[in-house]
Amino acid sequence: MIHSEESVAAELDRVRQRPAVESAPPVLAVFTVDVAGGLSEAYVQRVRHVLSAALHLACTAEFDDEDLPVDEFPDWFTTLCARSGEAPQHFARHGCTAYMDRSGGNPWSLQNWIYRFEPDEDSRGWEFWDAVPVGPAQVRVWVDSWGESFFGSLELLWLLYTAGAARVEGPEVHKAVTWASEVGGR
Could you tell me the superkingdom of the organism this chain comes from (predicted)? Predict the structure, then answer.
């Protein structure tokens, strides 16, 4: 799936504000995140902050061979990506290790990670839908995967882990009414 400028702009809107229940597609994929040390609300804010910066670039930047500006990204994320998994924040360091254990991959460089959000890039098989705290230490991150249960999501896993996940399960495909019930039909 190649993302259009319009779909990326709509995704950025969903990062900044929970979408209306009636706007949901028939099915969504969900990742269930156990947040290290609890504080699910702070975790959701970290995820939204990083995605907002990436999607803003996707809407405004020219993706070429040049490095893209990183001023809008939080320091914890840029430091972690620049230093191959080293960061002053415990949640980010721990998340990097957990990501490498799950994926078998290495830490992402910031520029490589950002380039996954280029609208013409077809390896990102998802669009952010919502992040919903479902307990003091658990968050469900909902994405539109166009009904697919298996899709390219390593860049999303990198973010979910480094933002403070102790464990990430999924993706699982559910009818959108499941998401709607979690947000209280708002």
Answer: Bacteria
